[in-house]
Design goal:
alpha+beta, Rossmann fold, Argininosuccinate synthetase, chain A, domain 2, 2 domains, 5-stranded antiparallel beta sheet, 4-stranded antiparallel beta sheet, 11 helices
Length: about 400
């Protein structure tokens, strides 16, 4: 863009990203505004995502998707500071990020005009893809993390690291061990002895982490996540290798590392099932899936997302308590849970006990089963008995 006569202001929410500009700023007019938004990212985006239980297509914890509205807020503030009328981004024309950044920009500063080089005909004629850009960066002494020897793209933040493109575009190619930066190989490098910790929640939001090994208690959101990232990463927790459905209609392969987020998600899910009424939980799960789609597709700032989030927050009022988690190589699991005294508990140990009578009349179950069997009996009457599969056929 500089070669085309533009004067640029750069904005980054990661101080490390400025290193890639060091060889460029000495030769071109470029001003950089650095915004440290880690704390906001954790408290305003990651924590609500844990509270809502957001997971896209049952596997992806939305590490990149959640970062985009957070970055967009910082971008719009930078745009106001320097009086910018245009927003330029490097998101590809085939990906989700172009949608996320631009929808967020239109929601926060509707008068801002968008420049997307990867959708510019002349730009695409000069650069076919990432390899051409890597070569361009080398010619101009611009340091970038991607190298010909490691031909994949990386996106890192406090929640996760994602890897895609390059050799990963073949879904039948196994990601090399050298790719992973946030977690160790759980089979060969993780400690074999499991560790335990307790995670506390209030209204579905993480409030503290107790580490049994060090007797430390972490209470600040950022330090909680950093600790869980370090501990979870040392056990190789949070690695996934998936093919997902992009909003633009394409399928893409992504490799993700989300150690701390995986632990928090598992703990919250366990406490939520323990604390919530069954039908409230089912309704919340429907809204959770819709909200995950909204976030993945770039609609964090939208009326439907606000509505879904408010409904989920109402459901989460009783999700307060603590969960004891066990971490072992490659996985984590809840092994104990307790609701906070002030919110009460739907779990009734005496009522559910197989050793105590009272409250629940077992004889009533016969009528309950008979009523539910009416539909099955009618189906058999109309169409005949169900066929049992014959394994010998």
């Amino acid at each position: 863009m500089v070669e085309c006569g533009w004067w640029l202001f750069g904005n980054t929410s990661s101080p490390n990203a400025c290193n890639s500009l060091s060889g460029f700023t000495t030769t071109i007019p470029l001003e950089v505004i650095v915004a440290d938004v880690k704390q906001s990212f954790v408290e305003d985006y990651i924590w609500p995502a844990i509270q809502m239980g957001l997971v896209y297509e049952e596997r992806y914890l939305l590490g990149t998707s959640l970062a985009r509205p957070c970055i967009s807020v910082a971008l719009m503030e930078a745009a106001r500071q320097c009086g910018a009328k245009y927003l330029a981004h490097g998101a590809t024309g085939k990906g989700n990020d172009q949608v996320r950044f631009e929808l967020s920009a239109y929601a926060l500063k509707p008068d801002l005009k968008i420049i997307a080089p990867w959708r510019d005909v002349e730009f695409c004629r000069q650069f076919q893809g990432r390899q051409d850009l890597i070569a361009y960066a080398q010619r101009h002494d611009i340091e970038v993390s991607a190298k010909p020897a490691t031909p994949w793209s990386t996106d890192a933040n406090i929640l996760h690291i994602s890897y895609e493109s390059g050799i990963l575009e073949d879904p039948n190619t196994v990601a090399p061990d050298s790719l992973y930066e946030m977690t160790v190989d759980p089979l060969t490098k993780a400690p074999q002895d499991p560790v335990r910790l307790v995670i506390h929640f209030e209204r579905g939001l993480p409030t503290s982490v107790e580490d049994f090994a060090s007797s430390r208690v972490y209470t600040k959101p950022l330090e909680m996540l950093e600790f869980l990232n370090q501990l979870g990463g040392s056990y190789g927790i949070g690695r996934i290798d998936i093919v997902e459905n992009r909003y633009v209609g394409l399928k893409s392969r992504g490799v993700y590392e989300t150690p701390g987020g995986t632990i928090l998600y598992a703990a919250h899910q366990d406490l939520e099932v323990f604390a919530l009424d069954r039908e409230v939980l089912r309704t919340k799960q429907v809204l959770r899936n819709r909200m995950a789609d909204y976030v993945y597709n770039g609609f964090w700032f939208s009326p439907e997302a606000v509505y879904a989030r408010r409904c989920i927050e109402l459901a989460e009022q009783r999700v307060s308590g603590k969960v004891t988690m066990e971490l072992a190589p490659g996985y984590c699991r809840a092994i104990a849970r307790k609701s906070a005294e002030e919110v009460g508990a739907l779990y009734n140990e005496q009522l559910v006990s197989m050793d105590v009578h009272g409250g629940y009349v077992p004889q009533d179950a016969g009528g309950f089963i008979a009523i539910n069997a009416v539909r099955i009996r009618e189906h058999v009457r109309a169409f005949g008995p169900y066929e049992v599969p014959n394994p010998d056929k």
